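Good morning C.,

I know you're traveling, so I'll keep this short. The sequence:
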Amino acid sequence: MQKGNIFSEIPKSIPKEVFNSIIDKNGIKIERIISKGHTTEKDKWYNQEKNEWLIILKGNAELEFEDNKKVSLKEGDYVNIPAHTKHRVTKTSKKEETIWLIVHY
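The tokens, ready to paste straight into the viewer:
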């Protein structure tokens, strides 16, 4: 059994995004990401081997896809990104932490 709290151990200062692996087993990875004003580099795209399901638990963000489609996300919003769909983060809240829960499957 593993118990934790997704909102615990939030650093006071976040100079770079924080990645915490919660589960990485049997081809499924669940992680928490904490952002605060962080974005993906302009010339970088995520192009993952696995599908990615994500939900914003706190804060807000904006994703951009290779076809120039942008998706704004607020608390409670989720999106499922199929494998090999190029995307990047173009915005996260600068005033508060954005807490993501990500499932790679």
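Safe travels,
E.
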